[in-house]
Design a protein that fits this description.
Length: 277
């Protein structure tokens, strides 16, 4: 096979498949239920363009549910229901004119456990992300997208000579970056990351954190993390979720990450960020 095009320096070429770019994502008064069990109540949050927003809080307070509401995965659960609005650059993603597929394309997701297609090649794993476009893409454009996505995911240098090898042969941290590359293939406007490093070793975690520092220049990032040091390292804004005494999950405190860690305004935030529960 012919060698793939080298990325232009200083940055890679950027073939546009989706809108791409930095977008403002806003939740307004989001409440979510599974059957009669309300897990979120009146959650409002602005996730700024070009920023990393970290969602922190104890297990079970609705962080993953909130992410799934943002990209309409929540509605795939038969018992699930929802109130409120999710606006992407001002347009309600639950409104008319948005197909589910368009929302998934513009708001990508990466999960805790790296889930590339293990038997599929690294190249095809990235290309598989394009299924969300519903468009045929030429071989040349695919090549460019694969290079661009792997560069953005911080994986290109490690896999450029083995693109035809199976994704399952990579280390855990590399597999997670492959999943990030797959999500980036369509040039999403927002990337949701649900504990993306929880299954990884500290070295792989640091590599992904460094990647995120670059990535936020091209995609708005929302990350759920249990790791307070990680939240402090990667995010500019932070929202603390809490579901106390049978109450549904709510945002207790939101703000600039540095300020929230150094001078939390709410006693419960103070206790949480200092590992008291
Ligand atoms: P977190 O990510 O903060 O740990 P989750 O969003 O996963 O919290 O869960 C919030 C609450 O919703 C929990 O009580 C959980 O048991 C419940 N829940 C999550 N997913 C489902 C589901 N598919 N069906 C029913 N209940 C669910
Ligand atoms: Mg979760």
């Amino acid at each position: 096979a012919a060698p793939l095009p080298e990325p232009d320096t200083p940055g890679p070429r950027q073939p546009v498949v989706s809108g791409g770019g930095l977008s403002l994502l806003e939740a307004r008064g989001v409440s979510a239920w599974f059957g009669s069990h309300r897990v979120l109540e009146g959650v409002s949050l602005v996730m700024g363009a070009g920023e990393v927003t970290a969602l922190i809080g104890p297990s079970g307070c609705g962080k993953s549910t909130f992410l799934r509401v943002l990209n309409r995965m929540h509605e795939l659960v038969p018992s699930a229901s929802l109130a409120g609005e999710v606006l992407l650059d001002g347009g309600d993603v639950y409104g008319r004119g948005w197909r589910l597929q368009d929302v998934r394309r513009d708001i990508g997701m990466v999960f805790q456990k790296p889930n590339p297609f293990p038997a599929m090649s690294i190249y095809d794993n990235v290309v598989s992300g394009l299924r969300l476009t519903g468009r045929r893409v030429s071989r040349d454009v695919k090549d460019e997208i694969v290079v661009r996505s792997l560069v953005s995911a911080g994986l290109w240098g490690e896999v450029r000579d083995r693109l035809r090898q199976p994704g399952g042969g990579l280390s855990g941290g590399q597999q997670q970056r492959l999943c990030i590359a797959r999500a980036l293939a369509v040039r999403p406007r927002v990337l949701l990351m649900d504990e993306p490093c929880s299954a990884l070793d500290p070295t792989s975690t640091r590599v992904i954190e460094e990647t995120m520092g670059q990535l936020r220049r091209e995609v708005t990032i929302v990350i759920v993390t249990h790791n307070m040091q990680q939240a402090a390292r990667v995010s500019q804004r932070c929202a603390f979720f809490l579901a106390s005494q049978g109450m549904p999950g709510q945002i207790v405190e939101y703000g600039d990450t540095d300020a929230m860690f150094s001078e939390p305004q709410d006693e419960r935030t103070f206790d949480y960020v200092n590992g008291r529960f």
